[in-house]
Each structure stands twice: as structure tokens, then as C-alpha cells.
Amino acid sequence: MKPHLAPATWLICLILMAGCQAGDDESLCDGDLIFQRSLSAQSDALERALGAPYTHMGIIFIENDQPLVYEAAGPVRRTPLAEWIARGLDGKYIVKRLQNSAEVLTPEAVASLKAEITQQMGVPYDYQFLWSDDQLYCSELAWKAYQRALDLEIGTPGRFGDHDFSDPLVQALLTKRFGNRVPSEEPVISPVDIFESEKLVTVRDHWNPK
For the structural domain made of 10-206, what CATH number should be given? Predict the structure, then answer.
């Protein structure tokens, strides 16, 4: 005979089974945001311009009990978590989650979030960090997915020209991509802007030694 559970209890169980994966005494859930210091050619310049090492990010979804990272890296794609981590500096990464995720990320909300980001699969990477949807960079993909699917802004977009361009390496990258027409007024959202949002809490820290 099966034990009887109240409907609310069944719902909680289904959410946990469908949307989260246990591991390393921590959990990963649909909609988690993961950050790393990428090894891409532009990461040195990005770190200096942003003033922090978080130069790449993605959104995690659990599929067939396996965590996948939806990311803009080349074209928008999904990457197995272990492969994504291995691409970062020293395998370091941090995972953050909405503080009120249990209330906000209902199964319906997760479905909307995933549908929004899935629509962008294959969109080319935006090396000029423009706000158009024709091309996307990593934090733009994540920010727009949350904003459009859930009307939730994680971090506040600023101006492209608000960042620190004084370093010679940064200046060289800007000259290569823009010549003398840097789009200083272009809206931009960086991984650091999202990382520092007060709406998020850290659920995995594989960056700072304990």
C-alpha cells in the first residue's frame, strides 16, 4: 500500500525530483546561475575592465538528472556542467540562486524561463556587446531570459562607457573591435553586474578555498 501524502507534499516532491540534482553535499536546481573566469582570448581584458574575475556565466537546467549549462559561447548552446567547468580557470566556479527561488521558480516559471532561453539556441556570440537580439553575449542571454520570462531583473544594465577602459590591454581590444567608434552609450549587463545582485545567494562556491 502506498503511503498517503497531502497534495502540497506531492507537489514539493515533484518539484525537487524534476528541478534539482544533489551532489557534493550541495544542490543544483533549474535556473541557477553559474560563473567562472573564462580562458577565452578576451578574458584578461574583460577582467580588467570589469574589476572582477567573473568573465563568463550561464544558466543551469537539469535534464535527465544531468546538469547542463545554457550559455552564449560561440553560438548559444547547452554544455554539460563538467565540460563547462573544465573550460574555466583552474576549474573554479560559483553557483548562485534567487533568494526566494522556492516561491518564484515554480514548475510553470521554470518552463517559461527554459522556453525563453531555448528560443535563442544557435544565435551567434556578440563580440561587440551590443543590446540587439541578433547576437548575444553570456550575461545578456541570462539577463534577458529572466526579464522576459519572469519579469525579473537580476542586476541593472549600465552604459558601455561606464567601465574602466584605462588599461592598455582593454584599449587594444576596443580598438580592434570598434576602431575609434566605441559605443559608450550602449546598454550593457556584465557577469559581474549579475553576480553582485542582492537578489542572489551563493549555493556552491568552488572558487575560494575553505
Answer: 3.90.1720.10
Q: Provide the residue type at 85 as one letter.
A: I
**Domain boundary assignment for the chain:** 10-206
Written as one letter, the residue type at 160 is F
Predicted model pTM: 0.89
Residue indicated by cell numbers 551590443 = 130
Q: Which residues of the chain have pLDDT under 50?
A: 1-18, 25
Rounded-to-10 torsion of CA 27, 114, 56, 166: -130
Distances (CA, A) of 100 to 31, 43, 69, 79: 12, 32, 21, 26
